[in-house]
Amino acid sequence: MARHPGIFPTFFLSGFECSTFVWKDQGRRNLVAETQHDHYADADYELLRSLGMAVSREGIPWPMVDKAGAYDFSAIDPMIAAMEKHCILPIWDMCHYGYPDDLDPFSETFITRFAAYCREAARYVSSRLRGPYYFTPINEITFFAFIGGEWGWVAPFRKTKEDRFQLRIQLCKAAIAGVNAIREVIPDARMVHMDPLVQVVAPRDRPDLEAAARHETEVDTFLAWDILYGREHPELGGAPEVLDIVGVNNYSFGQMEYREQGPHQALSPDDDRIKSLCDLLKCAWERYRRPMIISETSGMEEGREDWLRDVVEESLAAVDMGMDLHGICLFPAVDMPDWHNGKWLHNGICDLVPQGKDLRRVPYAPFVAELRRWQKELNRVTELDENPFSDPVELQDVIDAAKRLNKQPDQNWH
Questions:
Q1: Concatenated DSSP letters for 297-355?
Q2: What is residue 288's DSSP assignment?
Q3: Is 414 a domain residue?
Q4: Tens place of pLDDT per residue across the chain (414 aa)
Q5: Which of 62, 305, 314, 398 would bridge 277 by S-S if both were Cys, CB 3.0 to 4.6 A apart?
């Protein structure tokens, strides 16, 4: 029996880009189809199994399965079959920036329809896959509110701060309704609410923007989680058990210099204003004291293995400080296109190489080697056994490694 059981069967997780937004100049997009994950689900999950990962983020495409309240979940049948075959546990994203065409996200119908869809989705997956069951009702509420409410990248294409604030409240209300609906079907379902963990600083020559930058870092970043937790707007029904597991997404561009209009400017790697990932994790930990995972992280191109090394070292420093960190999600498992220009980002465990009409999966060897090194260092499995669900992660191994290695937080991004 584990001395300190983790939430998941493996410490390292992965996932597949599954956005279904309506993009500003291209209409409805489906990133599962664009990366051919729908076609290669079996091979993709066989890959995760071979890499010793028993948990994967996976999307249910709400706009494709919900037709005015009538449901067709056949789009996820290939994923379910592959998960069952390869013993992979999903964290289901119920809304990854996309919603049905006939819905207005500012309406109450959006909330009731989302809850009904969540209820039916929970029934569908629980009748076809073994538990335990994990869900993310609405992915990245804070970021979704930016790209749909203020920047106009995706539907509903609004472009004001007021619309961003209102959209965020609506998404929080929908997420809480979704949690409740799922637990009507699966009372012990776990929830992972994911959002970027960011820091925003004022331009060096604009001290007048310091208060705005600090507000975005210390208040705005956390408001959606605060609502789900019940700290803010408690009348909406948030509670610690609704927030449940805090998923923090961490990328280099999450540390930014404030801009009054449009997206902020990412800090360069040598900027002395950068905070360590451990310090950012500490902000979330001290605020909620809930179990945490790093729910998305990846470097780019040749920097992927260095990024993984930094993230694991910062995570171990956090664990050594007493933070309840249950996993690191290397996202995505296979490459994804830049939303804006369609170019491959080369940020996955595997690159995608065109071969005729197919996208061949080619593991990026240095990234895989760095993953293997850390799996061995932390006494984690490098290959799944027949039933990876039989035992949870022994987090004491990770805690012991953190003490033994004595990693210290730093600002190094490589």
A1: E---GGGHHHHHHHHHHHHHHHHHTT--EEEEEE--SB--B-TTT--B---SSEEEEEE
A2: H
A3: no
A4: 678 899 999 999 999 999 999 999 999 999 999 999 999 999 999 999 999 999 999 999 999 999 988 999 999 999 999 999 999 999 999 999 999 999 999 999 999 999 999 999 999 999 999 999 999 999 999 999 999 999 999 999 999 999 999 999 999 999 999 999 999 999 999 999 999 999 999 999 999 999 999 999 999 999 999 999 999 999 999 999 999 999 999 998 999 999 998 899 999 999 999 999 999 999 999 999 999 999 999 999 999 999 999 999 999 999 999 999 999 999 999 999 999 999 999 999 999 999 999 999 999 999 999 999 999 999 877 777 777 777 778 899 999 999 999 999 987 755
A5: 314
CATH of the domain at 271: 3.20.20.80
Domain that holds residue 356: 12-405
Torsion, CA 326, CA 297, CA 156, CA 179, rounded to 10: -10
Instruction: Tell me if 291 is assigned to some domain.
Output: yes
Cβ(328)–Cβ(335) under 8 Å? no
Please state the domain count of the chain. 1
What percent helix, strand, coil does the chain show, rounded to 5?
Answer: 45, 20, 40
* Residue that has been written with the tokens 């610690």 in this structure: 240
Name 351's bridge partners: 362
| Residue pair 290/326 in contact by the 8 Å Cβ criterion | no
- Quickly list DSSP for 335-347: --B-TTT--B---
Structural domain contains residue 7: no
Residue 87 lies in a domain: yes
Helix, coil or strand: residue 194? strand
* 129's tokens: 């896959």
